[in-house]
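Re-run requested by the PI after the first attempt was lost when the workstation crashed. Everything re-entered from the original request form. Ligand of interest: cobalamin.
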Amino acid sequence: MTPDEILKNLYDETMIGNAPAVLDLTNEGLSIGMTPEQILFEALIPSLEEVGARFERGDYFVPEMLIAGRAMSGALDVLRPLLAQTGVETVGTFLMGTVKGDVHDIGKNLVNIMLEGAGFHVIDIGVQAAPEKFIAGIEEHKPDIVGMSAFLTTTMPMFKANINAIEKAGLRDQVIIMVGGAPVTQEYADVCGADGYAADAATAVRRAKDLIAQRRASVNA
Ligand code: B12
């Protein structure tokens, strides 16, 4: 198969949630020299975007979304070590979780992979993470940044609930807080009192590095 055929098939097979085919195509693409970024950004992510659009139109239902998500996650398992292959020194510790009530983890996992690739030490506290879990994670791991992911308009208010709980625990000054997820905007991040927001994994990495640099500069000033 040519790279274009692989991308097209990856797009189509992800859309119908054919996990074994997505895995095979991912491996085949890599074996002929395609880059993990190409597979991710030119096939897997656009396919999942179309899955979301179909769900919105009522053409797809939860089971279809679920199997498409699983197919993408299987490919991510193969791409993860390749995307994270750097050897850069640790630039900081990032504690990441999907908020309580929300099980969407593909976006979070992608951000984690890119952060690891950029030299962050990432601690993933999983999905449906309650405020107490974020607090326990901060106390245990002393991260530079806490990242919160939400994919539902109904779970976005958990950002504020988490930030309030972190404040109440006396830990707010110790961490930078970043938020993200499909429905989240910079405006919403500002309103809920987060320090940073990013719409995608690559921007999240840049923003995380900038925020750490700013924090270190202000501490040393
Ligand atoms: C796959 C999927 C599912 C799967 C999730 C599987 C999984 N393991 O994640 C399943 C089937 C479980 C699911 C369930 C539901 N889903 Co759903 N789902 C999706 C879908 C199709 C894709 C989401 C995804 O993973 N995208 C891929 C990633 C890569 O997305 P991304 O946004 O580009 O990610 C980037 C950024 O968001 C950012 N980012 C993400 N997190 C963070 C964190 C930080 C700190 C930072 C800085 C950045 C950042 O970086 C990411 C990487 O570049 C979306 C549609 C869509 N287009 O988003 C709907 C969608 C999110 N789901 C939706 C809904 C309604 C539901 C359900 C309520 C359906 C139902 N009736 O049961 C349930 C809720 C379950 C729950 N309690 O959480 C709606 C949400 C509408 C809304 N605005 O609230 C959407 C938008 C579909 C739609 N168009 O209506 N879903």
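Saved to the shared folder this time. The chain has nine helices and five strands.
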